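Fold this complex.
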Amino acid sequence: MARKKTMQTNRNNQQAVSIDSHAPISFTFDGRTYQGCKGDTLASALLANNVHLTGRSFKYHRPRGIMAAGAEEPNALVGVGVGGRVEPNVKATQIELYDGLVAVSQNRFPSLKLDIGEINSVFSRFFPAGFYYKTFMWPASFWMRYEHIIRRAAGLGKVGDTHEDPDRYEKRHAHFDIVVVGGGLSGLSAALQAANSGQRVLLSEDQHQWGGWLRSCDDIIIDDMAGHEWADKTIAQLAEMDNVTLLPRTTCFGYGDHNFLTLAERVTDHLAEKPAHLPRMRLWKVRARRVILATGAIERPLVFAGNDLPGVMLASAAQTYLNQYGVLAGRRGILTTNNDAAWHSAFALHKAGCLITAIVDTRTNPAPAVLKQAASLGIQTRLGAGIIAAHGRLHVARVEIASLTKTGDALAGEAEHFDCDLVLMSGGMNPVVHLHSQSRGKLKWDERTHCFRPSTTHEDEQCVGACNGSFEPERGVKEAIAAALKAVKANGGAADALNLPDIVATKINWAPMPIWQIPNGLPAGQGGKAFVDFQNDVTASDIQLAVREGYHSVEHVKRYTTTGMATDQGKTSNINALGILARERNAEIPAVGTTTFRMPYTPTSIGMIAGRDIGGLFDPVRTTPMDKWHREAGAKFEHVGQWRRAWYYPQNGESMEQAVSREVRAARQTAGLLDASTLGKIDIKGPDAAEFLNRIYTNSWLKLGVGKCRYGLMCKDDGMVMDDGVTTRLAEDHFHMTTTTGGAAGVLDWLEEWLQTEWPELKVYLTSVTEQWAVATLSGPAAKEILNAAGTDINLNDEGFGFMSMREGYISGLPARIYRISFTGELSYEINVPARYGMALWTTLMRAGKNFGITPYGTEAMHVLRGEKGFIIVGQETDGTVTPHDLAMSWIVSDKKSDFIGKRALARHSMKAGDRKQLVGLKTKDPKKVIPEGAHATLDPNQPPPVEMLGHVTSSYFSPNLGHSVAMALLRGGHARMGQTVYFPMLDSSPPIEATITDTSFYDPKGERLNGKL
Amino acid sequence: MLEINCPYCGLRDEEEFACGGEAHIARPLVDNPISDKDFADYLFYRDNPKGVFLERWRHSAGCRRWFNVVRDTVSHHILEVYPIDTKPSTKAGRAAYQASWRRQSPAEAAARKVPQKTRKTSISKR
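Structure:
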């Protein structure tokens, strides 16, 4: 079916500077197809098709249209894209049109023109400022329910149904000597001057075309060129220079400490076909030596009843749509203003064919020049007057104009009615000081132009042009060039000063009349709504109400009314809100204060901030050299820190319990094999290595023999256990330390900290060798036979190779260090080979052990085996508040050593308290009952609440080898409670589990099995 | 994000570093008796001043070396970077070092290897 061709009825100039009318493209809005031109924004293309109504407002569901032409747009937020690419809440003024673009309006049901939520508007007198706070207070527990309903009714767009973002995002770090933000007249001048020095310059521009206001105005001639031609020429010049980076379509949204800037580059959003090799967006993290901000200014709306109707627009925006895109936003317009500058926008529209029926100025004394020009164009004027109300249902159709008193706070005459389809409004200019403010630069109130402009800076930064309150083009260029020269010089460079360009521009008096609300002749709160914050639906009377209710601080008023707290951060609303607040408080605006601008300047895609750090790249998964074997054996895995460890190996449909039970039995009856490669390993070398360990660990290390292993516990200096492991002396000056899997990196940092900051005199080197060694732990009565069967040159007899010692040699030809240490209580060998031999070692042992019943076991069985022995796991039995004494491990705390980390703290008075939580064992009365880990102990199960808690269970398993459950717990004064009965109340209200307090070595308490003798 | 001048590697982004908190906290020697209360000054108490602060940093994603930094906690300006076993040399850094209550604390006195009798005179000489 042929597409129905829609007419771009409002396009009156096919040769406008920012569009290419030879490249017509089509797009859809709310399912209807329209035509636009290459270079259009969605906003300009919609206006070209006479579509003004683009959305419904946040709270009252009022019809809203396009008010601005840039980043400050508060109303025209739409959803863009299809499928996984739906992005909500995008400003139509910032969407570059491409063929096939799909956009939808938001916050309306069932349709934009007929929206049932609009009824909120009828009942609006019941929705004043603070409505939610006042209404949904009680009962407090209901807030969750209210919030759900409120959030659905009030709100903006929705994200797409597909939550898989199909796009790719990139980050780029960069350094520049000078960064210029903003590609208008001042920014281009600054960049050109800076670039002439040869220093590295970055110039960024929010829009897709360069020139800023130069593209929108038709009355600035630079060096005999139209403003936009000069911009094109300058950008071409800059593009030729190797030391210049140009970033159009890039919003500098953050300015942090030490001249750190973050910029969002939209790489493919404007392309119909997204090339696969390009990311959708690129986050630039830029460190600049000097920054020049040339971010321009934003026009303020005027606050009058009905100022939010579609068809009411900022005067400068209407001029932008006309001159950049050749779009006339209306046919019959009225300007309401408090300044001269906006008159020129009205003249431009009038000349282009939009009949300006009246110019309404709150002042009685506009410049004679504009009065004269209005007269010559035949435009009638109303001076000392304002639009007191705009009317219309889905579009402005009529306004009421009345004379105001001299101060502008009351009516001085009867209202006249004018028909119109466009209202241009202008309340003066706001410099875009957001980045300056983000970088902690201060602002001052300019009494002449009635706006906040930069005063002092915090970072190495300069504001130039309109963002510095210098609205005159000549002054802006002069500032820009001077700022660039200063930056170049401060960087230690030099450049010849550029000649100031020859600028011919209309002379404009930029001082507006300070009027923050046009009165409507009715008592406060009555009459139509006069909006201050369009995006959050905050009206002038909301602010007045807040003040009446006692909110005086700007920060309180802001939060109570939510003015300035929408996604646009009050770009168009803040100053008007401050003005009204100041008036209500009889104070001056600077005394009322301003709010702090925070990043991001405009809403920024979270996808871009995440970049490539998503999915599998979010956090690396570390695997051991034997990982492939475990996967092929059908192991279930668990993640320990970043490590992926085999958890258990189910066979023939075994449950986890069955598999673990089988593995645990095998390790005690025949032999088990554990992949222990993930254990932290630190190589410690140097003449003072033994002395260093002696200070780190709680026990003695100086006399450990070469080839001998020792278990060590390390404390923090507060005496609390932080890690444990076995360390082996490889040579007089060389040790091999092992740490817990999760603690490896932290322990290395810990050792380095003490070595570098406390004992720099010790000659020791520390090297992480965790990844260099693969470790297979062979444990069980058959371990020795299996090693012999695999073939080794090491004498495994006790006299040659006793418990807690290490031998180097070969296993089946593989070079190995074998540590005879045990975490299971069985005869056990931790066999270390260079990582690349890990798989060979594992398969060799499995082959050699086949006839001996070798069984691979995972981390769960490892836990049960050590639980049967009552061996602690740091982080499970300890939580940073547990001392070695609490663990009944006083034997490992040396009282002979002069010092070790934690020694003085362990002597603190509070450490001797009898009611410290101490580690004990538990035997349940019913041997089959396994107490849940974390369960709390109490002496009296029938005590009414609050029940006195003794402590909690840290580890708990069913021991297949013992035939009953085993558990450990930290209980208050536990060591003195041996034999007592404690109860563990259950969450599911089943009867409390009864248990007896014991010591923690449940299995083979004499340790006879360590030698493999049964 | 701060930019920190690692004394061994040069200017790097803050994300390469880890902050180790207050600098110049001397650890009492075990041989010097000290009360639990005075020991707590070393073990638990940390300053958090508004203004110039001497703190330790570690180039954790770089050379792994520790060093000291003089940072203004209000402006975030870094006034000086200096090796771990030295004292600050800038005026602001020296003043902050001298002004710290730790200089007079029994914990710091207990960190010095001096016979008890002569300790007082040696402090005043510094």
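Residues 118-126 of chain B have pLDDT under 50 and may be disordered.
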